[in-house]
Amino acid sequence: MSKQTLAALCVLTLLAGCSTKPQNPVDFYTFRDEPLVKQVEDGMTMQRVIAIGGTPSAMVDTPKGGTCNNYILNREGHQQAYYIEFDVSGHVVSKGFMTCAQHQQNEKS
Fold first, then answer.
1. Mind listing the domains of the chain with CATH numbers?
2. H/E/C letters for each residue in 10-52?
């Protein structure tokens, strides 16, 4: 392994450790070209998200009055949970490589 690759991996690991929502950087790299990951942005409407990613596997209400969509991303036989949270007005406020339940648990911590 080259020194540059090792250094980059160390930086990503440190940044992931400091994050308030722990996510695996390998998941981002693996699924970075998936439409939900690449195209969905904060502030986007739920209708636009569904047009990009299709029907979610589950929709759950959030304690803040919004909703959260669970998706399952598939790439080369590897499945990964991905959530997109919407505020009361139906706009994206957060997203990431975990389920809505895991995200809500992280919010409590």
1. 23-108 (3.30.1450.10)
2. HHHHHHHHHCCCCCCHHHHHHHCCCHHHHHCCCCCEHHHHHHH
Asked whether the predicted pLDDT for residue 2 surpasses 80, the reply is: no
The secondary element (H helix, E strand) that includes residue 75 is strand 67-75
Question: Which band of pLDDT confidence, cut at 50, 70 and 90, is reported for residue 20?
Answer: very low
96 and 24 in contact (C-beta within 8 Å)?
no
Contacts made by residues 2-10, CB under 8 angstroms, sequence distance 24+: none
Q: Residue 15: what pLDDT?
A: 45
Q: Which are the contacts of 8, defined by CB distance < 8 A and separation ≥ 6? A: none
Q: What is the dihedral of CA 85, 46, 88, 97, to 10 degrees?
A: 0
Amino acid at 18: C
In this structure, are residues 78 and 95 in contact, taking their beta carbons and an 8 Å threshold?
A: no
Amino acid at 29: Y
